Amino acid sequence: MNQMTNSHILVNAFDYYEPETVADAAALLAQHGNRARLLAGGTDLLVQMKIERLAPDVVISLNRIPGLDRIEVRKDSLDLGARASILSIERHPLVRTHYQALAEACANFSSTQVQTMGTIGGNLGNASPAADSAPSLLAFGATLTLVGPQGERRLPLAEFFVGPGRSALQPGEIITAVALPQPKPGVGSAFAKVSRVTNDIAKANCAVVLTQGAGNLIVDCRLAFGSVAPTPMRARRAEALLIGQAWSEALADAAAEAAAAEVTPIDDVRSTAAYRREAVRVMVSDGLRLAWERAGDEETRRWGDREIGKPGAGETRGCGETQRLGAEEKRQIALRVNGHLQRAWVSPHDLLLNVVRNDLELTGTKYGCGIGECSACTVLMDGKPVLSCLVLAVEAAGHDITTIEGLAQPDGTLDPLQEAFIDYGAYQCGYCTPGQIITAKSLLLENPHPTEDDVRHHLRGNMCRCTGYAAIVRAVLAAGER
Ligand code: FES
Ligand code: FES
User: Fold this and answer.
1) Is 296 in the pocket of ligand 2 (CB under 6 A)?
2) From the CB of 370, is ligand 1 less than 6 Å away?
3) What is the value of pTM for the model shown?
4) How far is the CA of 355 from the centre of ligand 2 (A)?
5) Class for domain 71-297, per CATH?
6) Taking a C-beta distance cutoff of 8 angstroms, is the pair 340, 406 a contact?
7) Which ligand is closest in space to the CA of residue 430?
8) pLDDT at 311 over 60
9) Domain spans of the chain, in order of start
């Protein structure tokens, strides 16, 4: 590993590869072995690199491979490309209707920025016991498609997790898709999570998937959890109490007690084992009631009139040769910033934040934590909020970036959001303000008249050390009205 002398953000240098096919990416991964890491959303890998837990010599980007971000409705399944973003999954109409637990898991996923950048393959790939998408995918019986040097194989997600941070991936294998079987008629589901603050890793999370039959019968039930065992797990003894029985609230409470006894949590920095057990009991009790209620919904019985085989937004770039940028090399990138075409010479380890602040001297974008936790560095990339401290500059090539400097009109007229922040005194030291305004801008672009809850949810990842949240929320609501 090469130590950089002037990198206050990324300390290790690496060779960067941009394959355009999965086969090429897998070949590179097999060739470089443990020295290499895959990059998709970057919200985990770059954090691990910044806190110096990982120092790969090679980074293989999956972001130029066409179609990996698809969400595709098939005759009897929903296929999620490994690079489908958490936000795109949450918003997919079929996910909202048929896989409510997954939609809710994605809605509760860290900050809006991390939801936008993070991918389903990335959330599963590092085999964290706390992965928010894992319980619902386990409960729905998801299957992974893995591609490696030996070709393609399918693996039930239930066989994927083998220990904390350890999975059944073979050397050189890549997750390319997650397939969710079409739920049977009468399925309802729910997800719940408890965490220290809204955008933190779960102390415990839980998915309930339940099938309602005639005569109030529970035909099937799956209870899955995260952060309460070395791997995401199902509580099969508690499930067995429910399956084949007539629904009653007393039965739901008995199953909740059984699930709490079945999980094996630990004490750690985020919680105690005792608290986690109690959280499991409450989440199962509430989740069963909600899933039962939803299972009777007629809408969940319709699948056939969906557009089969129609993928969601996918990459359109063609397949070509793998591009490589050596650790000591630079490449000129072109990107549009605030409406102007800009060029910059960047190394693999340079970040979009550096380019914006240092090369383009747009210092309104702030550097706070550097590890994706404060959102001070938020910019819009193609209209979506991203954390510029976790975006490699080479990956920003060809994209449209908006910083706080780009909001005002050329004649200096401020954006309504900027005016509202002034009018409502929605800043104190002002350090977080550009990130707050840019994130709020992304909300108003898609929802011009948000509710207070919408604003609070969208801005949940933007930290203000001066704690001026109430005024910030008022300012965003006022800007919406204007
Ligand atoms: S999230 Fe980027 S600086 Fe804090
Ligand atoms: S106004 Fe000071 S950090 Fe938000």
Assistant:
1) no
2) yes
3) 0.91
4) 24
5) alpha beta
6) no
7) 2
8) no
9) 71-297, 329-406, 411-481
Residue 467 pLDDT level (bands cut at 50, 70, 90): confident
**In residues, how long is the chain?**
482
Q: How many CB atoms lie within 10 A of CB 409?
A: 8
Name 152's Cβ contacts closer than 8 Å, sequence gap at least 6. 145, 146, 176
Task: At 359, list the tokens.
Answer: 């090369």
Q: Which atom of ligand 2 is nearest to the CA of 427?
A: 1
How confident is the model over 400-425, as a mean pLDDT? Answer: 96
Collapsing DSSP to helix, strand or coil, 174 comes out as: strand
pLDDT digits (tens, 9 = 90+) for 89-103: 999 999 999 999 999
- pLDDT score, position 303: 63
The rounded Cα 474 to chain-centroid distance in angstroms is 28
Strands (E), 82-186: 143-148, 151-156, 161-163, 166-167, 174-181
Task: For residue 102, report the distance from its CA to the centre of ligand 1, in Å.
Answer: 27
Q: What is the dihedral of CA 39, 41, 46, 48, to 10 degrees?
A: -90
Q: Do residues 181 and 189 make contact, with C-beta atoms less than 8 angstroms apart?
A: no
What's the CA gap between 380 and 99, in Å, rounded? 29
Rounded to whole angstroms, the Cα distance separating 294 from 287 reads 10
Q: Tell me which fold the domain 329-406 belongs to.
A: Ubiquitin-like (UB roll) (3.10.20)
The 10s digit of each residue's pLDDT in 189-207 is: 999 999 988 788 899 999 9
What's the alpha-carbon Rg for the chain, to the nearest Å? 23
Q: Ligand 2: which residue has its CA nearest to atom 4?
A: 464
Provide the 8-state DSSP code for 356.
Answer: I
- Residue 414 Cβ < 6 Å to ligand 2: no
Query: Which CATH fold would you assign to the domain 411-481?
Result: DNA polymerase; domain 1 (1.10.150)
Q: Which atom of ligand 1 is nearest to the CA of 375?
A: 1
Describe the strand order of the beta sheet including 233-234 as a list of residue ranges. Answer: 187-195, 202-213, 217-226, 233-234
pLDDT band at 318, cuts 50/70/90?
Answer: very low
Q: Does ligand 1 lie within 6 Å of residue 387's CB atom?
A: yes
Question: How does pLDDT run across 383-410, given as a tens digit for each residue?
Answer: 999 999 999 999 999 999 999 999 999 8
Rounded to 10 deg, the angle between the 433-446 and 416-423 helix axes is 130
Ligand nearest to the CA of 467: 2
> How many whole angstroms from 438 Cα to the centroid of ligand 1?
13
Q: Is 425 in the pocket of ligand 2 (CB under 6 A)?
A: no
Among 46, 356, 369, name the best residue to mutate to test ligand 1's pocket (greatest count of ligand atoms within 8 A of Cβ): 369
Token pair listed for 361: 């001297």
